[in-house]
Amino acid sequence: MSIKKNIKLDQINKKIITIVHTQADISNQELSERVGLSNSACFQRTKALKEAGYFVGFNTDLDLNRIVKNVLAYVEFTLEANNPKARKTFENAIKAIPEFMDCLRITGDVDYICFTCCSDTQALNELCDAVNGNPDLGIQKVKTRIILERAKWYLGYPLQKLEWLK
After folding, report:
1. Of 12, 19, 125, 130, which sees the most CB atoms within 10 A?
2. In a 10 Å sphere around its CB, with 0-12 CB exposed, 13-18 middle and 19+ buried, how is residue 95 labelled?
3. Does the pLDDT at position 75 exceed 90?
4. What is the CATH number of the domain that holds 42?
């Protein structure tokens, strides 16, 4: 969804964003009570924030271990060339592979780190080999870090600790 217009982020809109960000399934009635608006006013504000593109999407966190076999890993990629054309080629390839759920260009001795979910270590290895074996992607090095335990997981941005834009 593209941003159509900017909406003034007053205290109520900030509350709506903060609550909906971590509780996307909240009812409009409960949200309106928590932000101190009527149901109708709260619905209109939330709808306007959605239409303006402040909410990019809604997802549900799943307990994967209860429903599917899975291996989670971070895969680090170092490219042979770190120029805009090489980065764009690599990024487009990663975007087309659903097992790569997150891809971040970072600083340091690694160019990208990707969060990955596969059915098992063999599938993860095959995925990494396929990407690394593609000569068009210009990958110099791949390093895989399998996640052993989920001590803490992403539960939303710490909006209450961040400085809001004016």
Report:
1. 19
2. exposed
3. yes
4. 1.10.10.10
